[in-house]
Design goal:
Elements: E1 3-11, H1 15-33, E2 39-50, E3 54-64, H2 71-74, E4 83-91, E5 94-101, E6 104-116, H3 130-135, E7 137-141, H4 150-155, H5 179-182, E8 187-196, H6 203-227, H7 229-232, H8 237-247, H9 277-288, H10 291-299
Helix pairs in contact: 1-6, 1-8
Length: 300
């Protein structure tokens, strides 16, 4: 069943500051999480123009995530095959990302974001229909709240206590209870996540895992955006884009990560990347009997 969930992240920033903060945060987090075998590879980064968004920046990226997924999920795909492909259209204050995984060819994850200078109380910024509004779940994420779930552990946790943190350059913070109604400037990122994994016996579990993972990523990335404010505050859009360009490695110096491309016509004996419903159900049934593996996952 298609899952539709809207996450609202209130930030003690102006819309202009948030754009700088996000660019800086993405660049730094990608550098921190990219190694010779895993991480993020930027394939394209160019201007675009279309009727839906107008003008903006298009990016195409590959994420290799083998060590960052639960043990039970690795049983459904060959080692090294958990490659995620992302296309993103950033026409700030509107953005859209489409995420696919070749090993789960039916899986589709989209994230549509609207940024507004408000306190997170706008009820239909995405222009949803009555049917979509009835199906939509809404969660307000407080960046000052602690993160202790499994996905936050996997993604990484910023140990800065935002209820005690105060920016030396701006004087903003600490973020005490009710800070969203008291801070100025203030803005909200409204992130509408739509995920569809139409795999019988397995799809709902995968959908819930992806929603939990996106929530953890939204929380951690926005905590970083604010806690790193003294590093990026005062930078101009031109300066941050120059810094971003410098962080991109030349093509002949990129890491030795290789994209997995496996066709259905491979010689017999080699495992295919894309899995059909029967294979997934078979593996799902097998895993249901392995209670210890699930217990380890839920204890983290």
């Amino acid at each position: 069943m298609v899952q539709l969930k809207e996450f609202r992240i209130v930030m003690p920033l102006s819309l202009e500051e948030y754009q700088i903060a996000q660019t800086y945060m993405i660049m730094r987090m990608q550098q921190q999480n990219t190694t010779s075998t895993e991480g993020v590879e930027v394939l394209e980064d160019r201007p675009f123009a279309n009727n839906e968004f107008g003008e903006g920046q298009y990016t195409s990226k590959i994420y290799r995530l083998q060590s960052k997924v639960p043990a039970w999920l690795t049983a459904f795909a060959p080692r090294g095959a958990l490659v995620v492909q992302e296309e993103a259209w950033n026409a700030y204050p509107r953005c859209k990302s489409v995420i696919k995984c070749p090993c789960f060819s039916k899986l589709l994850l989209t994230i549509e974001t609207v940024h507004k200078a408000d306190k997170g109380r706008s009820e239909n910024v995405h222009g949803l229909s009555k049917e979509q509004l009835a199906a939509r779940q809404v969660e307000v994420i407080d960046i000052a709240s602690p993160a202790r779930d499994y996905w936050s552990y996997v993604i990484g946790i910023n140990n800065v206590n935002l209820s005690e943190f105060q920016s030396m350059r701006t004087g903003r913070g600490p973020l005490l209870q009710g800070w969203q109604d008291q801070c100025n400037p203030v803005m909200t990122a409204y992130k509408l996540v739509k995920v569809d994994a139409p795999y019988w016996g397995f799809g709902n579990k995968l959908e819930q895992a992806l929603l939990a993972g996106e929530r953890a990523l939204f929380l951690e990335s926005h905590r970083n955006s604010f806690s790193w404010i003294d590093e990026w505050f005062g930078m101009t859009p031109e300066a941050i884009h120059d810094l971003e360009d410098e962080s991109h490695l030349p093509s002949d110096k990129k890491s030795n990560m290789q994209t997995l491309v496996v066709s259905k016509e491979e010689p017999e004996g080699k495992r295919r990347c894309s899995l059909d419903s029967e294979e997934i159900y078979s593996r799902s049934s097998q895993l249901e009997s392995e209670k210890h593996g699930f217990a380890v996952l839920h204890q983290r």
